[in-house]
Amino acid sequence: MTVMKTSLRNFLAHKGRMALSAIAVLLSVAFVCGTLVFTDTMSTTFDKLFAATSSDVTVSAKSASDSGETTADNGKPPVMPASVLGEVRKADGVESAEGAVFSTSVTVVDADKDNLSPSSGAPTIVGSWNSNEARTMKITSGAAPENSGQIMVDADTADKHDLKLGDEIGVLSAVGTHKTKISGIADFTVTNPGAAIFYLDTKTAQQTLVGETGVYTNVNVTAASGVSDAQLKKNVAAALGGDFQVKTAKETADANQKDVAGFMNVMKYAMLGFAGIAFLVGIFLIINTFSMLVAQRTREIGLMRAIGSSRKQVNRSVLVEALLLGVVGSVLGVAGGVGLAVGLMKLMGQMGMELSTDDLTVAWTTPVVGLVLGVVVTVLAAYLPARRAGKISPMAALRDAGAPADARAGWIRGVIGTVLTGAGVFGLYLAAQADKAQEGSLWLGLGVVLSLIGFVVIGPLLAGGVVRVLGAVLLRMFGPVGRMAERNALRNPRRTGATGAALMIGLALVACLSVVGSSMVASATDQLDKTVGTDFIIQSDSGQLITPQAVKAAKSAPDVERVTEYKWTKADFTTPDGKTLKDTAITAADPSYATDLRTETVAGELPDAYKPDSMSVHEKFAKDHGISLGSKIKVAFEDGATAGLTVRAITSSDVVIDAGAMYTSIATLAKYVPADKMPLDLMLFASAKDGQQDAAYQSLKSALHDYPQYTVRDQTDYKEALKDQIGQLLNMIYGLLALAIIVAILGVVNTLALSVVERTREIGLMRAIGLSRRQLRRMIRMESVVIALFGALLGLGLGMGWGATAQQLLALEGLEVLEIPWPTIIGVFIASAFVGLFAALIPAFRAGRMNVLNAIATE
Hints:
This protein is of the alpha+beta class.
């Protein structure tokens, strides 16, 4: 009880000094809990949506995906004959059944040809209005569509795009463009996560999405009273045989949830990973805080020992303070996490994904995880300072000698740090020398971990040399004040090393990712320059296939010499060694693709692969299956016949663009696949007539104006798009890393604040002999800057080493250009100096306000 009272008294006595450490715990716990609440809320939202939209039993085509979405390469949804509806209605236990048609491979535009698809990446769905949809949609104005000239839109989409009754809407599908006018607007009775939904009458939906009537994509079945979904499924399946998919409401909802689970898990674990980095950085802050508090209470600890307190009691007293800090920070962090989750939901709403706070989900595990994690991390971080406090002898403490200097501990730290750093560097070397990317990635991971730990351990030893160099370059120009700032940073290398290490971790990751991202862009740009011979690339940024109407429009553009089509499909390969390879990708293109992409061959010529009944394979595939020029491969095309194709070319496997592709001609594909099953184009390649590049560029854009889902890019545009994509990804990662850097800044602030308190008497004496307030504040700011730059130098150097090694592994995949983004690196280094200045504002201000006489009288 005495230990608890002492700990509580000390905690309350130093509550101001504990505040920044508590904020670090709060931020880290809030990020973890916010991530868990946000992803759980998303799961709840989708669960409710899928449960509400699923009929008791759903029947769909055999080739449909588990969730029933469009999967056919021809851009049309997999369908079944309307006769299935009659068979279902005859099954026992069926109260009612209704046929429906829907597709997600569509684009919807307004009268100005603006794309109405969600910006969040959520699907655009066009389907038939039916009683199953009426369960989750309420018509708020107008009426449901009744003929081919009418369409109904969901209220969220209408609000975002300012759509009104009577507005013209165009539906673009693989069948063609269908023009309608809005007849009604319907609102969701459940939360809509951001999809744009449009309804046609059933006959129009069949013609617009499939190109024929008398077919359905699914049949929605309602069970009679007293019949379970499982029994109804069994009855319907027996009535239909095994040619269709039959799923209960739960199975349909689970399949839909599985589709979004992958995305949510990636987001969840990525955010938790960055929260873990923030926790790691926070450990340094807590260690520094308790180390300095212990040092400031040396005499107090000596008195406690002198009147009978044992080492264990002193140790326990410090750990109880840490426990109180962890509990306070964690409780506030859990509450902050809920607020963060709400903020993320609002942000997603701005991006087009609507999440209602009515579905806010706080599982009982979330606060438990937050509390346990925050408390455990805080207590573990305080263990070393507590252990050092227990080692202070009573007499040494009473003399204010503090913790005895342990030369042996410093020597051991140096040896361990050097060994770990050397092992990490050796791991990075082995990664750079690896022949296979998978093998090298294991060495890279080991090298990163060991080198990071090594730098953390050896940081206090590096502080002496690095700070002296920084002092000579930056601080000496400020005269005596600069020299005092340098000496203050060198006074306690362990403290400087720990404070710098906190900043080092975040900046090392920033530097590593910057090098990798820049190298990827530079390598891809280099490959484009070397291998792409076409002027323009036409594709959909959302991954939609290119409709025949858009292909025809592109080919009609003036000033364009040729347009090359590029398709992709799957087939079962039977190779000369007798092996059958299921669902193997094969690319079909026009013969001009051999000119558009200058792919290196190791045998034969690529244009020969586009001759009738011919194909190419890549080098690794040929070696694995004993294939040479003239070999025949039996190719059973998906949705088509089986062909015997002759290998006319073997391409190099050491390429980046179209790596591993196997080519045949579109004419060969058309010979074995029926016209209605032919896959649509993935992309188009266009070349301008000589000297007409600018005119062709504009004419292609004009020709595809009615198809806003497709983008025309020249090579410069394509490189910029690639750079922007990687840049957006890096910016998102930098944003998440900002949490760790904020915690590191708090560490610098806390270190300086406690250092000012620790040096109160010294500051008073310096003021007494003539040091002005301005000089004092400058000294503290310079000390902060040099500590921040110390951490930045270590972090940026370490990160560039990691990034360069990672690039060597990417070189095994063809990305051979190493590019160091010096503007980013230099910018981060300079920004670190400003971070140091910012962190010193409050400590310097407080130091300058000290009363000189009171400061001198402080013991």
